[in-house]
Amino acid sequence: MQKIGLNTNSRRIKRKPQKLCPGCKETDDSVKIFSNKVNRIEEIVNNFHKNFTRKTNRISIFRAKFTLNNIPCELEYDLSNFTLESLQKLANFATQSCNNDNKGINNKPSKKND
Length: 114
Hints:
This protein is an alpha+beta fold and 114 residues long. It has helices at residues 22-57, 84-106; strands spanning 4-6, 12-14, 61-68, 71-78.
């Protein structure tokens, strides 16, 4: 900060800024580093909406992996194009498949040590 003094002749006199002491220099450096970090955070927050839209588009993608005639297959569907009825059928099929898998695991005979 510069101080401007006025003398009796209404002339402005500028004083030279004082040189920073070593402690002041360290403080100044710390403030600059902190300011740079805050600026980076603000930049990330301001650009968040640009990156966020890409991720929300991926929510509607459904990937299914299965084996048909001993051949591994993989399908990818965009669920945003499905009707409500089709989504309900898919949900029923998926939950029945999961329930059948769980029954097979739970019904295995346990080995007893005699």
